UniProtKB/TrEMBL annotation:
Residues 5-252 form the Thiolase N-terminal domain. SUPFAM superfamilies: Thiolase-like (SSF53901). InterPro entries: Thiolase, Thiolase-like, Thiolase_C, Thiolase_CS, Thiolase_N. One of its GO terms (molecular function) is acetyl-CoA C-acetyltransferase activity. PROSITE patterns: THIOLASE_2. This is Acetyl-CoA C-acetyltransferase.
């Protein structure tokens, strides 16, 4: 089977709620890492076979196939197609999977995969609000078949995060310690310049602005819970954020034809499902499946990036897989760095690639929970 290679990866800094990227149109924001990856690799834009782009709640300025719009906003040839996909929070990780699968099938050679999200412009609930204009409440509540299968149990990410914490015996204090460490790791990464080479500035904005410096367990303990009687707070949850990221995937033939230097090889691709009520637990079976299929043990993986949708998600995954958290999200995660939904998958892959190179690790694994009870796993091998 043909190999798929990562040639380059780049991202914007993450902008916080009402922050530096809030006024950017998503097409223009997504065009920034696309332009940077073309410029840095020196490829002929006309040689790109496709632009596969992730975006969640593609309404308003993100509607109308935003992947195609980002490419055109970058000023590149109209002959190159683009497509937008929505696998919820894993959208741009799935974009990378589709790009790699196209290369591995031998049908395409050079693909830009990535994603964009402006959560200030389009809040996470925007698609549901749009549905209400047509008399619908949530994606599930009016489906008789859904009710027959799952009853009236709530389908809500906060509810799911708390259900996970209860099921895996994870206390609020456990989650607050994890969240404080996420912020401390992100602070250190920024101060040591670990992100500098992976970030393309947006105008004068060149550094993630979501990190809550000086976060302490004591400070987190004083926050109000999101739900009355619950244990999830904003401090142990991913942050609303804006951003974009892009990854160039190439075949061996494209590497030769365009004089490219691969930085990593796609070693394995997995996507699995789990309970849509627990919603956020699928990284557990997906990781197990990936390790079974590859014959690897988790101890063989040098670095892991798992999206910190909520602290309970990562801690439950770590408990189930007996993971060494010193190798997980070593530069902080979405609790500190934000979660621009459609861009996060490509952002995590970018961070993983650069950290493998910085530390000299061989294998890196990325996974993330996704709405509907889904999870992707990508394993890459540094070259």
């Amino acid at each position: 089977m043909p190999e798929a290679y990562i040639i380059d990866a780049i991202r914007t800094p993450t902008g916080r709620k009402k922050g530096s990227l809030a006024e950017w149109h998503s097409a223009d924001l997504g065009a920034i890492p696309i332009t940077a990856i073309v410029d840095r690799t020196g490829i002929d834009p006309a040689a790109v076979d496709d632009v596969i782009w992730g975006c969640v709640d593609a309404v308003g300025p993100q509607a109308g196939n935003i992947g195609r719009s980002c490419w055109l906003a970058a000023g590149y040839p109209e002959s190159v197609p683009g497509v937008t996909i929505d696998r919820q929070c894993g959208s741009s990780q799935q974009a990378i999977h589709f790009a790699a699968q196209a290369v591995m099938s031998g049908t395409q050679d050079l693909i830009i995969a990535g994603g964009v999200q402006n959560m200030n412009a389009i809040p996470i609930s925007a698609a549901m609000y749009a549905g209400q204009a047509y008399g619908h409440d949530t994606p599930f509540s009016l489906s008789p078949a859904w009710k027959a299968r799952y009853g009236d149990e709530e389908v809500n990410q906060i509810y799911a995060a708390e259900k996970i914490a209860t099921t895996w015996d994870i206390s609020r204090q456990d989650m607050e310690r994890f969240a404080a460490e996420s912020n401390a790791r992100a602070e250190r990464a920024i101060d040591e310049g670990r992100f500098d080479s992976q970030i393309i500035p947006v105008g004068a904005f060149a550094q993630d602005e979501t990190v809550r410096r000086g976060t302490t367990v004591e400070g987190l303990a004083g926050l109000k819970t999101v739900r009355e009687g619950g244990i999830i707070t904003a401090g142990i949850s991913s942050q609303i954020a804006d951003g974009a990221a892009a990854v160039l995937i190439a075949s061996a033939q494209a590497v030769k034809d365009h004089g490219l230097k691969p930085r990593a090889r796609i070693h394995h691709l997995t996507v699995r499902g789990d309970s849509p009520i627990f919603m956020l637990t699928a990284p557990i079976p997906a990781t197990r499946h990936a390790l079974m299929k590859t014959g690897l043990k988790l101890s063989d993986i040098d670095l892991v990036e798992i999206n910190e949708a909520f602290a309970s998600v990562v801690l439950a995954w770590a408990k189930e897989l007996d993971a060494d958290l010193s190798k997980v999200n070593v530069n902080g995660g979405a609790i500190a760095l934000g979660h621009p939904l459609g861009a996060t998958g490509a952002r995590l892959m970018t961070t993983l690639l650069y950290e493998l190179e910085r530390t000299g690790g061989r294998y890196g694994m990325q996974t993330m929970c996704e709405g509907g009870g889904l999870a992707n796993v990508t394993i890459i091998e540094r070259l």
